[in-house]
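Q: Is it fine to ask for two folds in a single conversation?
A: Yes, each is treated on its own. Send the first.
Q: Here.
A: Result:
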Amino acid sequence: MIHDPRKGDKLSDRIDLKGNPAVKDDWYVQPKSGEVIDFIHFARTEGRFGKHFDQDGNPSEVLLAAQEDRLKNWHLLQELAGLR
């Protein structure tokens, strides 16, 4: 997210989310594979989240709640940027 106070009077004019490859979507989708890159996908790539997956690779309730929280934050940023 970029905030440039010189871009205008409204917050939606000053906030730019162009750093995200899926500005208008909930999560990025890999064009070639169709794989959704969400918080759970990210957590699988980070060893620190390993304890939050069971033996079958299913995420814990904590991770599922964190994913929902991340999505709500993203929706708020989209709204502030005038995209929702």
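Q: Second one now.
A: Result:
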Amino acid sequence: MVEEIRSGMLTIKQSIQQHHVSGSVLQKWNRWYYKIRLLKYYKPSFHMIPSQTTVEQLEQQLAEAHTQLAQVKLQNTALETMITVAEKQLNIEIRKKYGSKRSRS
């Protein structure tokens, strides 16, 4: 019954009416379910202060992400320039025109 409520299959009111149980009993069962069945899977950590190595690792990952972003931006600029030069030299439009229909071959 508690799983039906937690999963959203029934509301608390529907469950009380369907199973003929009082709200206080249902509340007790819900607390028991959380303590006995779920708490072993969701052990709350009271020491949420990250360790120094974790902070250093995250800073290193952030620096690597910034480096990769800069590299991708540079690559994008190079490709855009290459397309612009090719369009001018070949007198054709390479970029897709949004909203236009595909040509039938």
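Q: Anything structural to flag on that second result?
A: Two points. Residues 41 and 103 are 57 Å apart (CA to CA). The chain has four helices and no strands.
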